[in-house]
Amino acid sequence: MIERRKLFFILIFSALLLILRKAGVIEISINTIVNYIIMFYGLSLVYNSFAKNKLPLFVGSILFLTGVAFFIVTDFDFSNVGQIVLPSAIIIIGLSCLMLYLSNGNDTSFLIIGGLFLSAGVIVILVTGHLCFDKYFASVIEVAANYWLILIILILVISFSKRFGKT
């Protein structure tokens, strides 16, 4: 269940993005705003449940990484999006299992499961031939150049939520 404080900061973040979009400061689609909301909520779940609760940590990791995947698919041209869904899902599950391991380093089963899922995802990518490092790094640079202001806003909202969340 979403706490009121989390919902409040998600609404502030969304409102800031919509205001900046309307003012013409940033060019961003509604889909991208939704992706940021999913990432922000997933990140808040991870932050609040790290080393405390496994299920919210796992779900938060999946939400954050799914938001990242949707963001990439929405903002970049892919010849066939369907071909990257399976490897992305496998890698997201693997990374989420690794987050569970990082949260509790004593339970190596999450490390093994995460490593297996990550390996399987990479193998699927290599077998299907969808790995191109030049395009990947060019995309990362383009994302950083286009969305630096949104990343700053996200950092500010998170820092305010930490400051006011402890009162």
What would you say this structure looks like, in words?
This protein has 167 residues and is mostly helical. The chain has one domain. Helices cover 81% and strands 0% of the residues. It has 7 helices and no strands. The longest helix is centred in the middle third of the chain and has 22 residues, at 54-75.
The geometry reads as flat
What is the rounded Rg? Answer: 17 Å
For the termini, the CA-CA separation is 21 Å
Sketch the topology as an H/E string, one letter per element. HHHHHHH
DSSP strand count: 0
Number of helices: 7
Residue stretches low in confidence (pLDDT < 50, at least 5 long) are: none
Category from helices, strands and their pairing: mainly alpha
Give the helix proportion (percent range).
over 70%
Instruction: Work out the count of structural domains.
Output: 1
Q: Give the amount of beta strand, in percent.
A: under 5%
Largest sheet: none
Q: Can you give the mean pLDDT? A: 79
